[in-house]
Amino acid sequence: MDKILTDPILKAIISAIRPTAVPTTNFELDRDNADAMAFAIAHLRALGYQSQDDRNHMVLVCTSEHGAATPAERLMMGEAVAELLAGTAATSAAARGIGAPVLIVNCGSQTPPPAGVVDLGLGSGSGSDDLTREPATLDDDALVLCVRAGVALAASVMERGRGLLALGHVGFGNAGSIEAMVFALTDGDVAELGGSISPIPQDVAVLSGIILMAAAKSVAVILGDDAAVAAALLAYHWCPESRHVLIAAHQGASEAARRAMAALELKPLMEVGMQRSAGAGAAMALATLDRALFD
Length: 295
Known about the structure:
Helix content is 45%, strand content 10%. By secondary structure, the chain is of the alpha/beta class. The protein has a six-stranded parallel β-sheet with strand order 3-2-1-4-5-6, with helices on both faces. The N and C termini lie far apart (43 Å).
């Protein structure tokens, strides 16, 4: 993991991330009593979201198919991606209501992605969900490559103009890897993430790069699905200041997601648990925030 902080491109991105004008008290509120929506709106105003020019929103859904995915899970993933492409998914409906496009990005799969999905060219999603049986990739060089890919993707997306960026995920076979990564980061046993392999799925690495680039540009990121929350924790490990652009859409359905949000001190907008919502939770939160900010 140390290569992230020494890679010249990523080092420059991280160096560009500065604490925003968000008051320190935003992260010291009584989380049990603070209104999450009011807090999020104040947070976005402090980040500079004021005018219609800040309404170039996007929903970005990363897809991945890891070696541990079963045939049935691969079928479900294909169906979820097909619904997103057809515009019939709940994610699509929420985004369409505010005119936000949905970008589907392949972060690694066993088979070529269908037409309409952006392929980052990272190869197949390898590794195992059972870390007692087989490591879940990535080596240090591959980790840098994936984070760089996320940075480049975010830079391309932001050429559209400034807006809110909602992150979602469709994939199977990485829950065990995400759990191992989150527990290592929150327990302080980061040494487990080093060496020739690490329990960091490549889709999470890509998402972390997206978050770092967004933080460098003061673009707010709405986290949906456990992979996005885990990626936010990973970005925070490399650059604590990246936390200041994060908004949690919902509380997640796994212990790993709840643990990551507690470490990040994030209060979810919706008190529901969505583990594999294909970005629906983030898209719904995006639509609600857009109307609260601009209507």
